[in-house]
Amino acid sequence: MNECGWPRLLPQGDAAIVVEFGDRIDREVSERVTALADAMRGAAIPGVVELVPTFRSLLVHYDPLVLGFPDVAGRARELLAAVRTVDRRLRLVRLPVCYDEDLAPDLAEVARLTGMSPCEVVRLHGSVDYHVYMLGFLPGYPYMGDLPEPLRLPRLTTPRVRVPPRSVAIANAMTAVYPLESPGGWRLIGTVPVDLFAIGRESPALLGPGDRVRFEPAERAAFEDLRAAWAAGDGTLDVEEVAA
Question: Which of 6, 32, 54, 151 is the most exposed place for a label (fewest CB within 10 A)?
Answer without folding.
Answer: 6
